[in-house]
Amino acid sequence: MTQTVVNTTQGSLTVATPEAAPRGGRLRALDGLRLIAALMVACYHYGGRGGDITRAWGTSAARVFPTLHTPFAYGCLGVQVFFVISGFVICMSGWGRPLRSFFASRVARLMPAYWVAVLLVTAVFALPVVAYDAVSPSDVLVNLTLLQQPLGVDRVLGVDWTLWAEVRFYALFALCVVLPGANRRRVILFCAGWILAAAIAQGAHQPLLDIVLMPEYAPFFVGGVGLYLVHRDRRDPYAWGITAVSFLIGQHYAVRSLWNASDPHAFAHRTSYGVIAVVAFGFVAVAAIALGWLDRVNWGGLTVAGALTYPFYLVHEHLGWVVVAALHRRLGVPSSATFLLTVAGMLVLAYAMNNLVEERLTPRLRKALTAPRQ
């Protein structure tokens, strides 16, 4: 709430007025952008890098996709786009919500599909015909907690490092914003404080501060939060300032970690301009949604696309290796058809996970976590 002074014949009266509220209903364009980011990451994992995918193709993906392997190499930046989206969505979902409800919604959203993905990948990798090493049973059990990375345990899913970053963002947002109660002033202070603290942590070179404050990823989460403030009030100069500073710092980290034009052994040579352009795409796309420019993009199918994104993201990498090897090396399916069939197969699996797992378990888990206890 903000306060406004109203002049009356008896003097002045201070009254409370509501803060600017977001416009519209469900932002379906955001669902579509989620899937685009997931497909970017899939392009990277299937044709934009070396490693285990080389064994799946039987040769370097640079030979399989001689033209596309370089643009595919930029697909890893889909993760940064995800983080911007996450900052927007978490601020939107946490606004006006009590801590218990916020915690329950995050756990219920993340864990059911994640548990199934961990068990499914473990089971597939245990098959004798699959040439990839399975994680030990003890490590699989630790993976179910989503704390395997800080505990130094082998990971079942290659992409789960991003979930660890998400969990830390949720914790910071919950403690600093949701617990005391979200409002514009508190969110602005959170964004400014996190960006400043992350910069200090970067200069301090202290591992504990790096783990908590995530200097490399904080600008993307904060940028998404700033864009949600823009969504609430497009004339808010603080919101635009937060977004601009976040982009400027975020592109720096992205270029620093991904620019490899001078590396003769690089799988593909990314340019600094290319990295900046993809980061800018993420910010601009979310900004366009925040400003309502894509409100007409309101197709019902985008809701389905958004629902498929998370399970697809979880399973596409490791199970994709298995499918690529089966189609391309064993059945002789051409590389382009193998790529498309693998993506389609992972989307079908994601649809099954969404219908059989998420739609059934997510509401039950949320209800169990929010039920009052005596």
Structural commentary:
There is one protein chain. The protein has 374 residues and is mainly alpha-helical. The chain has 16 helices and two strands. The chain has helices at 28-47, 52-57, 61-64, 69-73, 78-94, 99-125, 137-143, 148-151, 160-178, 184-204, 207-213, 218-232, 237-258, 272-290, 300-330, 335-370; strands spanning 2-8, 11-17. The chain is globular and about 60 Å long. The two termini are 33 Å apart.
Walk me through the topology:
Layout: E1 2-8, E2 11-17, H1 28-47, H2 52-57, H3 61-64, H4 69-73, H5 78-94, H6 99-125, H7 137-143, H8 148-151, H9 160-178, H10 184-204, H11 207-213, H12 218-232, H13 237-258, H14 272-290, H15 300-330, H16 335-370
Antiparallel strand pairs: 1-2
Helix pairs in contact: 1-5, 1-15, 5-9, 5-12, 5-14, 6-15, 6-16, 10-12, 10-13, 12-13, 12-14, 13-14, 15-16
Number of helices: 16
* Rg over CA atoms: 22 Å
Strands in their spatial order, largest beta sheet: 1-2
Silhouette: globular
Structural class: mainly alpha
Proportion of strand residues: under 5%
- Percentage of residues in helical conformation: 55-70%
The number of E-state strands comes to: 2
The average pLDDT is 92
Distance between the termini: 33 Å
**What characterizes the major β-sheet?**
2 strands, antiparallel
Q: In terms of per-residue confidence, which ranges show pLDDT below 50 for 5 or more consecutive residues? A: 1-18
